[in-house]
C-alpha cells in the first residue's frame, strides 16, 4: 500500500510506520515535530515537516500518492485543551478537516482517524460500546467527537471509506512523560529516576490500558481491510480499540513497580478536574468487522515499557 501517516514521528505513529514498512508498504510521514521526534522517523519513509493546519498540507499528502491516510496528528493534552480550547479545536477539528479534504483531492480510498475514549465522558454503564452515549467531559473529548463528524461530512459525499478508531489508554515504549504523556509513561519515567510517582485521587479509578503494539496492529488491519469500514447503521464507522479489561490506577502502579523493580514510595494528591472515575471499552465490533483484538497482557506490556524507560536513564 501507499500510506500517508500524519503524526508519524510521534509515539504511536513511529511504531505504526515501522510496522507498515516492515509489511511492505511505502509510507510518507507528515509531522511538524511539535511533539514528535525525528528519532522516531523510519529511514525508509518519506518525511515532510508540515503542520496539518498549514498551507503545505494538501501538497504533502498528494506527494505521497496515498491509497490510505492514517490521521494521528493531534493536540492530545487534556490540560492544554482546558487552558486553550481554541488551539485544541483548531488542531483537532480544523486539522482533521484539512487532512480529509487533502485525502479526497489525492484520491485516497480510505482514511483512518485516531479518535479517543474521551468522547464518551462519564459513562452511565460499562463496558462502553460504540452505541453508548457521547458526552465529553473536557474540551479535548469535544474536539475529537467534532472531528469524527467532520470526517463524515467531508468523506461520505466523496465516496471515501473511513473509520474513527476510538483508542483507549495507550501506553508503551517511546511514550513521552512530559505534560499529559500518559500515566504509564509518567510513572515509569519517575521510577526509572528513583523518584516517587504521584497518584491523583484514590487510585481506584479504572482505565482500559492498551499496549501500543496492539493499537498499531489495529491500524494495520483496518488499513488493509478488503471490506467497507464505514458501515451503514447507527455506529457507522466508529470502532473501539481497547482490551475490554478495566484496571485501576493502583493496580497499574503496583504492576509497574514490579516491572521497574522500584522499591520507593508512591505519592498521593487530590483528584484532578475532568478525570473520569471508570472507563472500559468493549472491542467486540472491531473483532467482528476486521478481525482485530488486543493480545498483549498488561504485565507483559508493562515489562516492555519498563525495559525501554530503564535504558533511557
Features:
313 residues; alpha/beta; UDP-galactose 4-epimerase, domain 1; two-stranded parallel sheet; 13 strands; globular
Structural overview:
By secondary structure, the protein is an alpha/beta fold. The chain has two domains: 2-170 and 210-241, NAD(P)-binding Rossmann-like Domain (Rossmann fold), CATH 3.40.50.720; 172-208 and 243-311, UDP-galactose 4-epimerase, domain 1 (Alpha-Beta Complex), CATH 3.90.25. It has ten helices and 13 strands. The protein has helices at residues 11-22, 57-63, 78-83, 85-106, 139-158, 183-192, 212-224, 249-260, 284-290, 298-311; strands at residues 2-6, 26-30, 46-48, 68-71, 110-116, 161-167, 169-171, 198-200, 206-207, 209-211, 238-241, 247-248, 267-269. The strands form four sheets. A seven-stranded parallel beta sheet has the order 3-2-1-4-5-6-11, with helices on both faces. A two-stranded parallel sheet has the order 7-10. Helix 4 (85-106) packs parallel to helix 5, helix 6 crosses helix 10 (298-311) and helix 8 packs across helix 10.
Helix/strand/pairing category: alpha/beta
Poorly predicted regions are: none
Strand percentage lies at 15-25%
* Count of folded domains: 2
Q: What proportion of the residues is helical, as a percent range?
A: 25-40%
User: Which descriptor suits the 3D outline?
Assistant: globular
CATH architecture of the largest domain: 3-Layer(aba) Sandwich
Order of helices and strands: EHEEHEHHEHEEHEEEHEEHEHH
How are the strands of the largest sheet arranged?
A: 3-2-1-4-5-6-11
User: What Rg is obtained from the alpha carbons, in whole angstroms?
Assistant: 19 Å
Provide the CATH topology of the largest domain.
Answer: Rossmann fold
How many distinct beta strands? 13
Distance between the termini: 38 Å
Largest β sheet strand count, sense and barrel closure = 7 strands, parallel
Q: What is the CATH homologous superfamily assignment of the largest domain?
A: NAD(P)-binding Rossmann-like Domain
User: Residue-averaged pLDDT, rounded?
Assistant: 95
Amino acid at each position: 500500500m501507499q500510506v500517508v501517516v500524519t503524526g508519524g514521528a510521534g509515539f504511536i505513529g513511529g511504531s505504526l510506520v515501522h510496522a507498515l514498512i516492515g509489511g511492505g508498504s511505502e509510507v510518507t510521514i507528515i509531522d511538524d515535530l511539535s511533539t514528535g521526534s525525528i528519532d522516531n522517523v523510519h529511514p525508509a519513509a518519506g518525511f515532510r515537516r508540515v503542520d496539518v493546519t498549514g498551507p503545505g498540507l494538501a501538497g504533502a499528502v498528494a506527494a505521497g500518492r496515498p491509497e490510505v491516510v492514517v490521521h494521528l496528528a493531534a493536540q492530545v493534552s487534556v490540560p492544554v485543551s482546558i487552558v486553550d480550547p481554541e488551539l485544541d479545536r483548531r488542531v483537532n477539528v480544523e486539522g482533521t478537516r484539512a487532512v480529509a479534504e487533502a485525502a479526497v483531492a489525492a484520491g485516497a480510498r480510505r482514511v483512518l482517524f485516531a479518535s479517543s475514549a474521551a468522547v464518551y465522558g462519564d459513562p452511565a454503564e460499562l463496558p462502553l460500546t460504540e452505541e453508548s452515549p457521547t458526552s465529553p467531559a473536557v474540551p479535548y473529548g469535544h474536539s475529537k467527537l467534532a472531528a469524527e463528524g467532520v470526517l463524515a461530512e467531508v468523506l461520505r459525499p466523496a465516496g471515501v471509506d473511513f473509520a474513527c478508531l476510538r483508542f483507549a489508554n495507550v501506553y508503551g515504549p517511546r511514550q513521552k512523560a512530559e505534560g499529559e504523556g500518559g500515566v504509564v509513561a509518567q510513572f515509569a519515567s519517575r521510577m526509572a529516576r528513583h523518584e516517587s510517582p504521584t497518584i491523583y485521587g484514590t487510585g481506584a479509578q479504572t482505565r482500559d490500558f492498551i499496549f501500543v503494539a496492539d493499537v498499531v496492529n489495529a491500524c494495520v488491519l483496518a488499513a488493509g481491510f478488503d471490506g467497507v469500514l464505514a458501515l451503514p447503521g447507527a455506529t457507522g464507522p466508529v470502532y473501539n480499540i481497547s482490551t475490554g479489561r478495566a484496571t485501576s490506577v493502583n493496580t497499574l502502579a503496583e504492576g509497574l513497580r514490579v516491572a521497574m523493580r522500584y522499591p520507593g514510595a508512591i505519592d498521593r494528591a487530590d483528584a484532578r478536574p475532568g478525570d473520569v472515575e471508570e472507563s472500559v471499552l468493549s472491542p467486540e465490533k472491531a473483532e467482528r468487522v476486521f478481525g482485530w483484538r488486543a493480545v498483549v497482557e498488561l504485565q507483559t506490556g508493562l515489562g516492555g515499557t519498563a525495559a525501554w524507560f530503564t535504558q533511557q536513564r
